[in-house]
Amino acid sequence: xxxxxxxxxxxxxxxxxxxRTNSGSSGPWWNQPMTYRxxxxxxxxxxxxxxxxxxxxxESIALALLLSPGDIGLILARVQKSIHLRKHPGxxxxxxxxxxxxxxxxxxxxxxxPIGIRKFVDVCNTAAYELELTEIQRLVRVxxxxxxxxxxxxxxxxxxxxxxxxxxxxxxxxxxxxTALSLAEIAQSDQSISGRGPNSLAAVSVYLGAECHDHxxxxxxxxxxxxxxxxTLRNVSDKFQNIPQARSIIDNGKE
Length: 255
What we know:
two-stranded antiparallel ribbon; 2 strands; 13 helices; mainly alpha; Cyclin A, domain 1; 2 domains
């Protein structure tokens, strides 16, 4: 007995070759309702659920993430391929959708500054789509092991890809950018600090690079831009001071 026969016996709709039910007017899968969790108001609040199409979910966070209609189309195509290949059994489509949106923003194809994972989670929760940090981290790890996603940009690539925006946002000079790139290159090759996230290394490199030229940037602003916490910025900054080459650049800049 074929799958089609079983579906007919159970009273289910037949599926098309693309894995959608043939309901005539249902339309593409990205316009079909998808359940999602709403953020809890308090720890004791019960989980509440909402319903929206994958396309609608992406459109509602598009402004905060600078996603164009073309970007949304590419993300939906990646999600469709990923689900078709069954690379993440047991995961909800809602989580898969948001994870692919995050991974797209970190890929070179996005042609924009990569976003930190904590900042992405904050954007989703602010838009009323509950997403836990550990939840997306686990799925990113699963997708990484399948080879479906490219490697994350390193600290130097982070700065190069967003040089224009950095100069506009923090009024950085070309010399300050050059110093930040030098610090980032030293940091990512040093064993004592190479385990840190590339966004943390990039943030500290820009922060210290500006300081070398007597340009003070508020820690709050740089942390918000790169999606890291202020304690992380300070801790990594201290580690930079322990790298001889980086220390030399910092000391020369302060003279």
